[in-house]
Amino acid sequence: MKFASEKNLRMAIDKFPRIKLAYLPTPLEEAKALSEKLGGPRIFIKRDDQTGLAFGGNKGRKLEFIMADVMKKKADLVITWAGIQSNWCRSVAAAVRKLGMKSILILSKRPGLPADYDGNLLLDYIFDADIRIVEGEGGKAPKEEDIMGTVNKIVEEERRKGHNPYIVSVGGSSVGWSMTEPLGAISYTDAFLEILKQAKEQKIKVDAVVHASGSGSTQAGLAVGAKALGGITEVTGISVSGKKDAMVNEVYEIAKETIKALRLNMPIAPEDIIVLDDYVGEGYGMLNKETTEAIRITAETEGILLDPVYTAKAMAGLMDLIKLGHFKKGQTIVFLHTGGTPALFPYREKLLELIKESKKQ
Ligand SMILES: *Cc1c(COP(=O)(O)O)cnc(C)c1O
Question: In this predicted model, what pLDDT tens digit does every residue of 140-154 receive, in sequence order?
Answer without folding.
Answer: 999 999 999 999 999
